[in-house]
Amino acid sequence: MLQVEALHKSYGKRSILENITFTLKEGDIVGLVGENGAGKSTLLHVLATLQKPTKGKINLNGMTYHWKSFSQIRKHIGFVPQEVAIWEHLTVEENMLFFEKLSWKNKSKEELQSLCLDMKLNRWKEPVHTLSGGMKRKLNLAISLIHEPELLLLDEPTVGIDLKSKQEIAFYLKDLTAKTGMSIIYISHDMDEIMNLCDRVFCIGNDLFYYELLAQAGQEVIQL
Ligand SMILES: Nc1ncnc2c1ncn2[C@@H]1O[C@H](COP(=O)(O)OP(=O)(O)O)[C@@H](O)[C@H]1O
Ligand SMILES: [Mg+2]
């Protein structure tokens, strides 16, 4: 469903991603690891059409990436950035309704509420600023799923949240990919989480730390 071929990305003269090639199948959950500054977020931004690649080819479900097709491609992608991006003064309900208006699909209030409940986010009428970090992360994730994307890109979606919320999110995502065939690329520094959730792990860069750590736990790592 996703093919990335010989992808390069530079900022000015500085090369960040070099010759990245991989494919993703329907329902795949792939972990993306690497040290800070390795280019993980940059890769996700390119896949999310927020940054243009310097060179290389990307194809998502038969659609080739080209700036002319970016708005079409975006309809098929869910993206959760590293920073939480929701309205703090609005309630969960108001946030969901607001982002539904911006999305490509029409959803009823009941459908939006059940999307939240499925990931154990049950504070429908409460303002976001009163929620825990874990609840806010769940809301951010729920928003990215309103339009039923085929590819979900998650940039450290569970940083700094409690273990229970982490596990609820992981359980929900596994279930969703199994049911819908949605594929996920998941950036995290939490190796337990990566191993629990992901079918495969990609590593950017050649820092042996990640290879050794994951190999010890019996997890294969593919270098990008
Ligand atoms: N918009 C940008 N312009 C210039 N350099 C950038 C930009 N975004 C990221 N970088 C640089 O690219 C490198 C990779 O960053 P990033 O993809 O955020 O790494 P990671 O997510 O793996 O920590 C870093 O050195 C960062 O400073
Ligand atoms: Mg990053």
Beta-sheet strand percentage? 15-25%
Instruction: Name the CATH homologous superfamily.
Output: P-loop containing nucleotide triphosphate hydrolases
**Count of DSSP E strands?**
10
**Count of folded domains:** 1
Report the mean per-residue pLDDT as an integer.
94
- Structural class comes to alpha/beta
CA-CA gap between termini: 18 Å
Number of helical runs? 8
The main pleated sheet reads as: 6 strands, parallel
What is the CATH topology classification name? Answer: Rossmann fold
Helix content: 25-40%
N-to-C order of helices and strands? EEEHEEHEHHHEHEHEHE
Assigned CATH architecture: 3-Layer(aba) Sandwich
Name the CATH class.
Alpha Beta
Please give the order of strands in the largest beta sheet. 6-7-8-3-9-10
Radius of gyration: 17 Å
**Poorly predicted runs:** none
Net shape: globular
List the helices and strands and how they pair.
Layout: E1 2-11, E2 14-24, E3 29-33, H1 40-47, E4 55-60, E5 63-64, H2 70-74, E6 77-80, H3 92-102, H4 109-118, H5 133-145, E7 151-155, H6 163-180, E8 183-187, H7 191-197, E9 200-203, H8 208-216, E10 221-223
Parallel strand pairs: 3-8, 3-9, 6-7, 7-8, 9-10
Antiparallel strand pairs: 1-2, 1-4, 4-5
Bound molecules: adenosine-5'-diphosphate (ADP) and magnesium ion.
The site of magnesium ion (MG) has 4 residues, from α1.
Molecular structure report:
The chain has eight helices and ten strands. The protein has a single domain (2-85, 148-223), classed as 3-Layer(aba) Sandwich (Rossmann fold). It is an alpha/beta fold and 224 residues long. The strands form two sheets. Strands 6-7-8-3-9-10 form a six-stranded parallel beta sheet, sandwiched between helices. It has a four-stranded antiparallel beta sheet with strand order 2-1-4-5, covered by helices on one side. Bound molecules: adenosine-5'-diphosphate (ADP) and magnesium ion. Adenosine-5'-diphosphate (ADP) binds next to helix 1.
